Amino acid sequence: MRATVYLDHAATSWPKPPSVHKAMREAIVRFGGNPGRSAHTLSMGAADVVFQAREAVAELLGIRRPEQVVFTMNATYALNTAIKTAIRSPCHILLSDIEHNAVLRPVHALVEQLGVEYSVFSTEGDIYSNICHAIRADTRMLVSTLASNVTGREIPLSVLSRIRREYGLYTVADASQLLGHAPVSLSEDPVDVLCAPGHKGLFGAMGCGFAVYEDTPPYTLIEGGSGSESRETGMPQRLPERLEAGTLPVPSIASLTAGISYITGIGLNNIRQKTDQITEQLQRELSAMDGIHIVGSVGHGIVSFVSERYSPEELARELDRYSICTRAGLHCAPLAHKTFGTQDSGTVRLSASHTTTDEDVLLFLRAMHHILSQ
Known about the structure:
Elements: E1 5-6, H1 18-29, H2 41-61, E2 69-72, H3 75-84, E3 92-96, H4 101-114, E4 117-121, H5 127-134, E5 139-145, H6 157-167, E6 170-174, E7 193-197, E8 209-213, H7 250-266, H8 268-287, E9 292-294, E10 302-307, H9 312-321, E11 324-325, E12 327-329, H10 334-340, E13 347-351, H11 358-372
Parallel strand pairs: 1-11, 3-4, 3-5, 5-6, 6-7
Antiparallel strand pairs: 2-8, 7-8, 9-10, 10-13, 12-13
């Protein structure tokens, strides 16, 4: 049996810290009630678990009001909510040219449903100038990832915040591949909504994502029980209840608190330093291999590449025989692959974490040499 070398952290982090396992179990065993639905001990305990998670996210992002944190089932749901609760009439939406389908598809749905138009700005060169030149008179929304899930290319939150301030655009940031890898401060660089999953860089379990709102949106995405104002036919006007219809995934939310505590204990600057070192090593060693080509810029543990001899799927299967977990294909981001010129083939994506060891990197490189020498 070979030890598993896990290089698919951009899909989900693994393994989870023991503290995450413990938090989920306690949420089920000790706090098994439905939060906000009753006044008994188990329900109140579950509500405390949820509020502690709001406080943990708020502290991580430098915001003062935990009620700004709205929990969802994942980042995709958070992005759909952020986009669709803000746009209800024809307008122009501006996206980066490296967006994930979690952004592209809900925007395209608005094209079909409302007659919305969208275009993309280039993430090459001066991003601020590129965005400014792409803004139209009818542009109402700017949506952008903070780091590409294909290559790790970063779009600074400070640039998006500046555009929001200067042009008054409703700005949505997707922090799925950045949060947990580098510090993010909404007090320094505010946007209207920041969306993220709990199960990637924050080391929580699958089943919990969140959106952090600057202000309460005028519309809702779904409606249902909120635990308050039950006589009203509409959702409550205040956050977070306005956007949290139905029962929350308390065990996953509890795991998020534990995951945030885990990474803050290590230190985000320490995490970024180690991840950058691994990223640079992988890029350097792969670039020296015959027939291997790095795609785009790299960053935040992510390195994508193609082989002249193998398709991405073939190479990923070969690596799996060495117990090395990678991801091949388009990574749910065809717009990004169009930008990088790999829309027909896709790539093999490596995504490391601060938990990736020197031995993991060495085993991967040895496997690549063996595969390419066959």
